[in-house]
Write a structure and sequence with these properties.
It contains five helices and seven strands, in the order βαααββαββαββ. By secondary structure, the protein is of the alpha+beta class. The strands form three sheets. A three-stranded antiparallel sheet has the order 1-7-6.
Length: 131
């Protein structure tokens, strides 16, 4: 097996600015409904949690290495459970890139504190995969 890694750091203030400027249009372009629901606390969106998911999407794209081909943000989904590690799920074009690269699984670690979010993605690929 080979591994690929991706890491990203996001300032939650940039997410708050995007929300203020574009509102629901921004949310629907970047996040799946399940991700938005998971980031609500008492009916209010938690921008730190949104930033962590955005960082995870960026880190996943780095691990996928799509070159100049854009991957839709919603093709990468972060699922957090009450217990256990977060999961990275891929759909659509992201799944196609993963398949073509021989990627068989992902591990994801995310954290956020004091307005900064970090995500680290490890992709496991078969030896001898094309990309």
């Amino acid at each position: 097996m080979r591994i690929r890694v991706g890491i990203d750091l996001v300032d939650a203030a940039t997410i708050a600015e995007a929300l203020e400027a574009h509102g629901d249009r921004y949310l629907q372009r970047i996040y799946r409904d399940s991700e938005i629901a998971d980031c609500r606390r008492g009916g209010v969106l938690d921008v730190d949690r949104l930033a962590a998911r955005f960082a995870a999407k960026e880190a996943a794209i780095k691990a996928l290495r799509p070159g100049d081909d854009p991957i839709p943000w919603r093709d990468i989904e972060v699922r957090c459970r009450p217990s256990g590690p977060p999961e990275l799920l891929i759909h659509g074009l992201a799944a196609t890139f993963a398949h073509d690269a021989g990627i068989t699984g992902f591990a994801l670690s995310i954290t956020h504190e004091q307005g900064t979010a970090v995500a680290f993605v490890v992709a496991e690929a078969r030896t001898g995969a094309d990309r």
